[in-house]
Amino acid sequence: MQDQTPxxxxxxxxxxxxxxxxxxxAAPTDSMPSLEDLLKAAELKAAExxxxxxxxxxxxxxxxxxxxxxxxxxxxxxxxxFATELLAVKDSLEAALANENQGAEALKAGVxxxxxxxxxxxxxxxxxxINPIDEKFDPHRHQAISQVEADxxxxxxxxxxxxxxxxxxxxxxxxxxxxxxxxxx
Length: 185
Known about the structure:
This protein has helices spanning 22-26, 35-77, 80-98, 104-124; strands at residues 127-130, 142-149, 157-162, 164-167, 170-173, 175-181. By secondary structure, it is an alpha+beta fold. Strand 4 (164-167) and strand 5 (170-173) form a beta hairpin. Helix 3 (80-98) runs antiparallel to helix 4 (104-124).
């Protein structure tokens, strides 16, 4: 066997080392990830976003359903407060009818008290009376039944046949009125 000195041993190239295999020589250490790694990372991100979207969609659907239920309940029970106020009025009317031994004055006093209870219930429920005597005719709040010749400005309410009512300033029944017109010469 020949004596080999370090100078006689084959020397690796300057760019390679004896410990690294040839495959590792092709890929530098600070290179970008492979396309497969990038694809896997993108698929994971897409799955995360899809999951978040599905959760947001479900939450939105639940909120919409709850809002619809709340609207249904609000519509169904909107008149509950007003109905509760009217129970006292009904009780008073029934009590008046149950008392057979009362005079006209007692009956009138009971009816007046019942009317006050009803007016209080209307006020609490923001149901306002429209009684437009001597006001200018307003077709949005009044319904003219007839016209009569009268002194003064034309198109004024001269008599109210039936009071109107507005709920929260929205007319639910216009007042039935007689309106003035100018006198013929």
